[in-house]
Specification:
465 residues; mainly alpha; Amino acid/polyamine transporter I; globular
């Protein structure tokens, strides 16, 4: 194994921050305020839910940052879990990333991109005669096939770009993130300085009056926020390509999450200044509208609609690109450790794990064809919080196991912060089982499929520890 070429450490803390922000800011910043309004019926409660979701996310990020600072390596939590727990649990996490967490994220974002593109330039229907075809009465791969095909092409294009060169993939993300920042700043400035008069009474009949906010409603609203905050941990996947990773990963995660919290509060305050809560509830009830588009339409007309639609395209594209770039690294790291198929652990001439990227792209494309995007999103959040909780527990385990180890960063508020986050993850896990048993059952099934895969790989190729 001595002749294996290794990943090159080329990224500084600036790139880490870009990766964190680019992995988080996607469709949620434009869409999630509407369902939150439908749950909370109050401007102040909506902003509080965004803040609470951000703080809880920050608690998880702070806990993750300590572990990353101590154990930083390519593969992120996969590498951490191998050292904190054991190879099997690390494999189960990496398998879950491949089976649903990361690939479902890529598939869902690509679908949003294709839908947004369709609102600007109508995408022709493809194979309409097969739209009624189903697999087991559950999956309809050819329904809306034109949009699905567009989403698949986007995934494959970005996969190819990231196999060509690490710098080309990262450079694309940097340019897109700059454009997104300019666009969101434009919305904030024009929105806050506009003189749009909001209606003071409900604009449709039924269901739009204010009511008491329950704990359940607030929790549900935060779940919407968590999709918008999802993706912050992905930067750990490229730990082997970051200079001084033990310092730069924790610093980049914390700074990046703080930036996103500030952006989300500013952007959503802007939406709420322009649109009333009843209007947002109406947008949610319509099902086919996006809050950001309606807000910009209010102060900028048709030209604004085109602007925000293009911005959504760019933002989503940036998030897909960041997810593709980072998501292939865990399976690459697993293969290097003998915990995945050996061909996935090879680098191409550009020092990029091209085989891992290709496998990820193919599976993401298949998930696009499944058509179960909302279901995938629910399963994604359910699955990922299991492992987020395990990472925070790792802070406590490592403090006891390695008390004298040098830690470039120590989690603020230890042990309160990691314990609080662990308890929250347990609550989310149990709540999902109770309120969404179907999604929880499918998510657990996809995770547990990794058990026979692990046993097969161990039998096929014994691993030396």
């Amino acid at each position: 194994m001595n002749n294996q070429r290794n990943l090159v450490r080329t990224f500084g803390v600036g790139y880490v921050i870009i990766f964190v922000v680019a992995n988080i800011i996607g469709s949620g910043v434009y869409k999630k305020i509407a369902p939150m309004a439908a749950e909370l019926h109050s401007m102040n409660w909506i902003l509080l839910a965004w803040l609470a979701g951000g703080i809880i996310t920050l608690f998880g990020a702070l806990s993750n940052a300590e572990v990353a600072g101590l154990l930083a390596d390519t593969g992120g939590d996969f590498a951490y879990f191998k050292k904190i727990y054991n190879r099997f649990f690390a494999f189960l996490y990496g398998w879950s990333l491949f089976a649903v967490i990361q690939t479902a994220t890529i598939a869902s974002l690509a679908y949003v991109f294709a839908q947004s593109l369709n609102s600007i330039v109508p995408i022709p229907e493809v194979l309409p005669s097969l739209s009624g075809f189903t697999i087991g009465g559950v999956f309809a791969p050819f329904q809306g096939f034109g949009i699905k095909l567009t989403a698949i092409l986007v995934i494959l294009l970005l996969t190819w770009l990231n196999t060509a060169s690490l710098r080309s993939g990262a450079g694309t993300g940097k340019i897109i993130m700059l454009l997104v920042s300019i666009g969101l700043l434009t919305i904030i400035i024009f929105g806050l300085t506009s003189h749009v008069v909001k209606p003071t009474a409900p604009i449709v009949e039924g269901g739009l009056t204010n009511g008491a906010v329950t704990i359940s409603a607030f929790f549900t609203a935060m779940l919407a926020a968590f999709w918008a905050y999802q993706g912050w941990a992905s930067v750990g996947f490229i730990g082997g390509e970051i200079k001084d990773a033990n310092r730069n990963i924790p610093k980049g995660i914390v700074i990046g999450v703080f930036i996103v919290i500030a952006v989300y509060l500013l952007v959503n305050f802007t939406y709420l200044k322009i649109l009333s809560v009843p209007q947002l509830e109406q947008i949610h009830a319509a099902g086919n509208k996006i809050a950001a588009i309606e807000a910009v339409r209010a102060f900028w007309g048709k030209g604004g609609v085109m602007f925000i639609s293009v911005l959504i395209l760019i933002t989503t594209l940036g998030c897909i690109n960041a997810s593709v770039l980072t998501g292939a690294r865990p399976t690459f790291a697993m293969a290097r450790e003998g915990l995945f198929f050996s061909g996935i652990g090879k680098l191409n001439k550009a020092n990029v794990p091209a085989n891992s990227l290709l496998l990820q792209g193919i599976w993401s494309a298949l998930l696009v064809l499944s058509g179960s995007f909302d279901q995938l999103t629910d399963m994604l959040i359910f699955a990922v919080f299991i492992f987020y909780g395990a990472t925070s527990l790792g802070v406590i385990v490592l403090r006891r196991r390695m008390p004298d180890a040098h830690r470039p960063y120590k989690v603020w508020g230890y042990p309160v912060v990691p314990v609080f986050y662990i308890l929250f993850c347990i609550g989310l896990f149990l709540n999902t089982i109770i309120t969404k048993p179907r999604e929880a059952a499918i998510g657990l099934t996809l995770i547990l499929v990794g058990v026979p895969v692990y046993l097969f790989l161990q039998r096929k190729k014994p691993v030396n520890n």
